[in-house]
Amino acid sequence: MRGLLSKRVGLMSAIVAMMLILAACGGNNNAASPSTSDSAKPTASSTASASNQPAERVKLKVLGHASWFKSGWDAVAKDAAAHGFDLEVEKVPDTDAGNDLIKTRFATKDTPDILLFFPGSIFSNMGPPADYFVKQEDQPWMDNFDKSAWVRALDEKENVNGDRGFYAAPYWGSNVSAVLYNKKVFESLNLQIPKTYADFLAVCEAIKKAGKIPVYYSGKDSWTLQLLPFDAASKKGYGELADKINKNQAKFTQYDNMKKGIETLVDLKNKGFINKTFLSDTYDNAEKALATGEAGMYHMGTWMMSDIVTKFQDNVNDIGAFIMPFDGDDTDILPVFAPYGMFVPKGKNQDAAQKFVNYFESIETQNLYFENEGGIPALNGVTKTKLTPAELDAKTLVDAGRKFANWQYGFDYDLSNFGVYLQDALVGNKTPDQVLAAMDKDFAKDAKTKKDPNFQ
Amino acid sequence: MNKLMRKNYTYGMLVPGLLLFLVLFITPSMGAFYYAFTDLTDFNFFSAKYVGWENFKTLFDTDGSMLALKNTIIFTVVTTVFKITIGLGLAVLLNMKLRTTLYLRTVFFFPVILSTVAVALAFSAIYHPTTGLLNQFLRLLGLDFLAQNWITDRGLVMYSISAVEVWKWTGIGMVLFLAGLQSIPQDAYESATIDGANAWQQFRSITLPLLLPSIKSVFFLSMIGGLKVFDIVIALTNGGPGKASTTLNYMVYEDFSKHFYGEGTAASLLLFLLILVTVAILNLFISRKEVEL
Question: What InterPro entries is this protein classified in (chain A) (predicted)?
Fold first, then answer.
């Protein structure tokens, strides 16, 4: 009995000791909490212009999503410290909870000095932009920024207060949706980049004859199916149609280029130009297939190249990018996914924060940033980048004006089922028209739920 | 402490627990009967406006709602039938005195303790049309014609999901049946043997009637679990391909994730009523059979 008792006491003691140890270990672990912070350490290096340097050292609190602070930011943070900016970074999770945390901070007036957030969404998340943020239209960094190229992408949309305009400075690189292709496959079959849809089909036929997969669909990750229709739908001038759809003055069923994109998606499947197990295959499978030359082409954003750099280092130079030739003319363009936004909240530190933004957006600092980080710069004149050949192909086309920024964010209401409907179209459960009708239904339902008077 | 207090103080001890139950379960559950008829879209409960049957109309008008109902019924029927028959078969088998009885009981119960997500990931790989173990095994046996797109074929997907559910949860039924079997007095079998009854007659006339309370428990557990199916669907197919494997509870999840709280509440209320009515009718039917047997 006594032995049993001492065993029990021993066991209880061990449990209590373990709990205490775990509690002690967890007590100082900020990474597990909703927000974390760290400070940039000053270094001797300096590259930015002196005009953006504050007269005395200032401490700025920066708030943003955890995964937005990468190697580019680290390099800039060190350089900024040498310019008198001591940055205290507060990170929130990359989830809806993180967004809610940021919104709550603004609702309770507990604002940071710099906010990294999604441009174009300030009104719906916080309220009228002019109430919260400093407008960027007259800032010096705007000299290197082509505003017309980023309307509906980096600006705040018109709202009830009518204060639309650029409140965000670009943060991070942009990406484009393109046809990523394996150059070795093309070279081995003596294929040229297709200029028309007929050329594209001929290329597919040649790759198929060589026993490879012409176009890879990663349909298990349904979002990846959206890229091809997005490419077709993102025509210049279609922003106006998006506006009309937002106001219930037009429908997706009237969106001919969107329909063409869905038809093309199904057409390639019907012609046997895609992988047979496309509904079981994932984005990861697609990366491998394209990098190793098992597949010839894949409709995807250039963000995939950062994965290729990590996972298939030897194949990075084998991958290029071109515009999907739907109409075979200049109306075929690359949809551009805009960078995130760097905002200056109104408050006691707004002047110092604006100086930091001007420093960050200077060409020197942008060169430093993109030397250390992937993505295509949104500012003109940035010369130092670490772009892969595929991203450089895309950048060349973007620089030539063959682009349309953030078409997909031009819509105000729910389109989250689009990928699922595309799966339906590929298995023959919906026609392209039925996909568009289903999108109209979802869109109207969400608008009605959000009490949009145009949809009541 | 006077006599009245001594008699009633135990009820006082229940108050904290009851309060928690009232606040965290009863109140929200009762609230559903009201909020299903409102336009609730955020957690500002006081601003919700009464909209009559609008949420229910929208629900039935939603793309794939009838398919979700059909899928839920298929899943419930298939899994209930197989969980009972296989569970009962295993229980009868493992009630015998075999050298491996204890080992086999552990083996068959093991899937119950596995995480649904882990099981779904494993079966996602097993079901892969080209690299999956199942099709590779079939091809190895020369049964290529049986190799299928198990979870990407619209006509097969619900049955493939059901098979995973049966594999995972049959162990629970087996344990309940085993407990029932071990409570049946051996005298009944000895008397039947003396009377010349064969094994099948003994099973039909002794085992089955005396096991009916266990069968009833497994039946209702499986049926309610089937009607509420969600986790295995989202983990294995995410309702796909397209909306081919959407179920009622999956629709509730989609509604809530899109902030359609009124409609989501209406959907969960309908699901609750469906379960309540089905269980009540079947309970009445089985109880009558129980008396007859």
Answer: Bact_solute-bd_prot1, SBP
Residue A429 has its nearest CB partner, among B149, B152, B154, at B154
Per-residue pLDDT, averaged over B100-117, amounts to 93
Query: Which residues of chain B lie closer than 8 angstroms to A277, CB-CB?
Result: 128-130, 149, 152
State how many domains chain A has: 2
DSSP code at position A376: B
Does A152 map to a domain?
yes
For A38, the enclosing helix (H) or strand (E) is strand A36-39
Residue A403 lies in a domain: no
Q: Which candidate, A207, A222, A171, places its Cα nearest to that of A67?
A: A171
Contacting B with CB below 8 Å, chain A residues are 219, 222, 276-277, 279-280, 414, 416-417, 420-421, 423-427, 429-430, 438, 441-442, 445-446, 449-451
Chain pair A-B, CB pairs under 8 angstroms: 59
A200 with A291, same domain: the answer is: yes
B171: Cα within 13 Å, side-chain hemisphere: 15
Question: SS3 for B83-144, per residue?
Answer: HHHHHHHHHHHHCCCCCCHHHHHHHHHHHHHCCHHHHHHHHHHHCCCCCCHHHHHHHHCCCH
Residues A148 and A219 in one domain: no
To the nearest whole Å, the CA of B127 is away from the closest chain A CA by 9
- Cβ contact, residue pair A280, B41, below 8 Å: no
pLDDT at B47: 78
- The range of the structural domain enclosing residue A78 comes to 33-173+339-381
Q: How far apart are CA A341 and CA A348, in angstroms?
A: 21
Question: Would you tell me how many other CB atoms lie within 10 Å of the CB of residue B278?
Answer: 16
**Is A159 found in the same domain as A92?**
yes
Tokens of A203: 């290329």
How much is the pLDDT for A113? 97
Is B292's pLDDT higher than 70?
no
What pLDDT, on a 0 to 100 scale, did the predictor assign at position A153?
A: 79
pLDDT at position A2 is 41
| Domain-located, residue A10 | no
Low-confidence spans in chain A with pLDDT less than 50: 1-9, 11-12, 14-50
Residue that has been written with the tokens 């336009």 in this structure = B39
Express each pLDDT in B134-185 by its tens digit.
Answer: 999 999 999 999 999 999 999 999 999 999 999 999 999 999 999 999 999 9
Confidence of residue B59 (pLDDT cuts 50, 70, 90): confident
Q: What is the arithmetic mean of pLDDT over B15-20?
A: 92
Strands (E), chain B: none
User: Per-residue confidence at B253, pLDDT binned at 50, 70, 90?
Assistant: very high
Facing residue for A277 by CB, picked from B129, B238, B244: B129
* Closest chain A residue to the Cα of B153, Cα to Cα: A427
Ordered structural domains, chain B, with CATH: 59-292 (1.10.3720.10)
A119 with A248, same domain? no
CA of A136 to nearest chain B CA: how many angstroms apart? 33
A343 and A313: one domain?
no
Residue A115 to chain B, least CA–CA distance (Å):
25
Q: Are residues A252 and A345 in the same domain?
A: no
Assess whether A273 and A218 both reside in one domain: yes
How far, in Å, are A9, A114, B20, B226 from residue A60 at the CA level? Answer: 53, 7, 45, 55
Q: Report the CATH number at residue A169.
A: 3.40.190.10
| A217 contacts in chain B (CB < 8 Å) | none
Contact A437, A253 (CB under 8 A): yes
- Whole-number pLDDT of residue B291: 56
User: Using a CB-CB distance cutoff of 8 angstroms, which residues of chain A are in contact with residue B41?
Assistant: 449-451
The answer to whether B64 and A429 have CB atoms below 8 angstroms apart is no
Cα gap A325→A231, rounded to integer Å:
10
Instruction: Indicate whether A135 belongs to any domain.
Output: yes
Same domain, A92 and A150: yes
